[in-house]
Amino acid sequence: MPELPEVQALVDFLRVRTEGLVVTGVELGSISVLKTFSPPPQALVGAPVDGVARHGKFLDLDCGGTHLVFHLARAGWLRWSDAIPATVLRPGKSPIALRVRFDDGSGFDLTEAGTKKSLAAYIVGDVSAVPRIVSLGPDPLGDDFTLEVFSQIAASHRMQIKGMLRDQSIIAGVGNAYSDEVLHVAKLSPFALAVNLSPDEVERLYRALRGTLAAAVATASGKPAKELKDAKRAGMRVHGRTGEVCPECGDVVREVSFADSSLQYCATCQTGGKPLADRRTSKFLK
Question: The domain 4-134 belongs to what CATH superfamily?
Answer without folding.
Answer: MutM-like, N-terminal (3.20.190.10)
